[in-house]
Specification:
CATH class of the largest domain: Alpha Beta
Strand order of the largest sheet: 2-1-3-4-5-11
Order of helices and strands: HHHHEHHEHEHEEHEHEHEHEEHEE
Number of strands: 12
CATH superfamily of the largest domain: Response regulator
Distance between the termini: 72 Å
CATH topology of the largest domain: Rossmann fold
Shape: elongated
Number of domains: 3
Radius of gyration: 26 Å
Amino acid sequence: MTAAGGRPTLEAVARRAGVSRATVSRVVNGSPKVAEEIQVRVRQVVEEMGYVPNQAARTLVTQRTDSIALVLTEQANRVFSDDQYFPGIIFGVSQVLEDADKQLVLLMAHSDAGHERIERYATGGHVDGVLIASMHGADPLPATLARRRIPVICGGRPLGRTNLPYVDVDQAGGVATAIEHLLAGGRRRIATIAGPQDMVAGIERLAAYRNALRDSDRRSIVAVGDFTRGSGAVAMRQLLADDPQLDAVFVASDLMAHGALRTLREAGRRVPEDVAVIGFDDVEMAQFTDPPLTTVRQPIVEMGRRMAEQVLRLAAGEQVDHSVVLATELVLRDST
């Protein structure tokens, strides 16, 4: 017996192997409750006939899809820009899932309708767990999925009071190290280009900058961008207008720092002689700016790996740490 298109069925495999349909199903789904010699015979017939299990039927038996969703709450043009944060996260997640023989499902949502679509998809039994990265505001999606008993891991600490587990980097420590480096270099008027204030990374990096300056009796000089190159260029023009004497700027992302370097060059300011610049991320581009960018390195790929490891543990019914916080490192280059 074959299915439509000529594919062999479970019944055909069972008939040739001389066992029941249920036995073939148990072997295909990895059940240990079948004698070894029967397992060998069934697998041999499966290979000979080219039998491919029906995933929908298999899911009904195992209650697993062997798929994990990675949700990026950004517009597609941001995800696929030359900001290497998202490719790094995807690469780290995919490494772990591939080793675990799981399928990565990439989902993007930048609207209420997109969130609703993802909620329907995830709660419809299509995935075994969900990873959510780049959250804006008090995003209700993670808590909604968790209430539906879907394993959820957040990339970055969620805004507000929540018990959802997450993987993040030491935002405050990384910024403090950057500001300490600028102060040690004799910089007196240190500005910042902050990230968007509806994201934890933007909020925490700005707060850490202000705390570091408060401890050194310096005043804050702030402009806000949205983690894009263009916003960094615009914010740098605003800072120069606000304080023409500034001699350093901490920028909350490398992409914004690249834009800031362009504005400084257009304004005739030498880097680092007139203005020192430090970014955050250490994406590959930071090595090739003019001059090469001093930056706070966050382990982006490792963050993706740890997120995937945590969600697989949750999906297996295991306990996970509420928070995993990875260390950052200041990488010195010519911009300081």
